[in-house]
Design goal:
By secondary structure, the chain is mostly beta strands. It has one domain. It has a six-stranded antiparallel β-sheet, with no helix packed on it. Strands 8-7-10 form a three-stranded antiparallel β-sheet, with no helix packed on it. It has a two-stranded antiparallel sheet with strand order 5-9. Bound molecules: 2-acetamido-2-deoxy-beta-D-glucopyranose (NAG) (3 copies). One 2-acetamido-2-deoxy-beta-D-glucopyranose binds next to loops. It comes from Gossypium anomalum.
Length: 203
């Protein structure tokens, strides 16, 4: 009985050891996000690299964290670069963005994903690949230029789809970008480029 009480006491004190992480450069690291095993909650691991925060995918690719909204349990990561004069996302070798399903993060339902250089068979899925798709606007600007003239599509990543990956692959679509909370008639200059992730609160 005494043992049980002691074990319970240890469990309770460990769970309540609530220690936010120090700033990463000038950026606050809100609890439960964790840049170090001694602070935050270790399941919410992110990376502090020279004053910049990064999110690591299941395949080990690092995405820059652009903003964090601790009240909404959300953060926005930078979509991978599309390499100049190509239509390849820099995470193509990793198969695109992949989140570890055992971790408490998923892709929110506010992301409009645009896929580029897709093969014909992608047309079978519920995507908008018409000549009026938003993706056509992106092909006209700097980063999307290498994708000009390829088959491109957009879709809202809603709850009917997997919330743990955005796929990029040879023979599928080789590049993608993403806009958070895209409004129908918003001009490209005000698109909020990013991929919004949300996390399950610790308790
Ligand atoms: C595709 O998206 C554009 C831009 O939102 C829209 O005007 C068009 O009606 C959509 N087409 C289809 C087939 O859903
Ligand atoms: C488009 O994808 C194919 C493979 O699916 C690849 O061979 C080709 O180089 C890509 N095009 C561009 C412009 O990157
Ligand atoms: C993603 O996570 C949130 C909580 O963080 C949860 O409410 C939501 O149902 C999850 N979405 C999916 C599709 O699993």
């Amino acid at each position: 009985m005494v043992h049980v009480v002691v074990v319970l006491f240890i469990l309770v004190t460990q769970v309540s050891a609530y220690r936010p992480c120090p700033k990463c450069g000038k950026i606050k690291v809100p609890y439960p996000l964790s840049t170090d095993e001694n602070c935050g909650d270790p399941r919410y691991r992110i990376n502090c690299n020279n004053g910049a925060l990064e999110f690591m995918s299941a395949s080990g690719f690092y995405y820059k964290i652009l903003s964090i909204n601790p009240k909404a349990n959300k953060l926005i990561i930078k979509p991978p670069l599309i390499q100049e004069n190509t239509c390849y996302s820099s995470d193509l070798d990793q198969g695109g963005l992949m989140l570890d399903e055992n971790l408490p993060f998923n892709i929110s339902t506010r992301n409009t994903v645009m896929l580029f250089n897709c093969s014909d068979n992608i047309l079978l899925s519920p995507l908008n690949c018409s000549s009026s798709s938003f993706c056509r606007e992106f092909e006209e600007v700097g980063e999307g230029c290498g994708c000009k003239g390829t088959l491109c599509c957009h879709f809202l990543k809603d709850s009917s789809m997997t919330s743990h990956r955005i796929r990029a692959r040879l023979g599928g679509c080789t590049a993608y970008t993403c806009v958070v909370d895209k409004q129908p008639d918003e001009p490209l200059e005000s698109w909020n480029f990013g991929i919004e992730l949300q996390w399950l609160p610790p308790f």
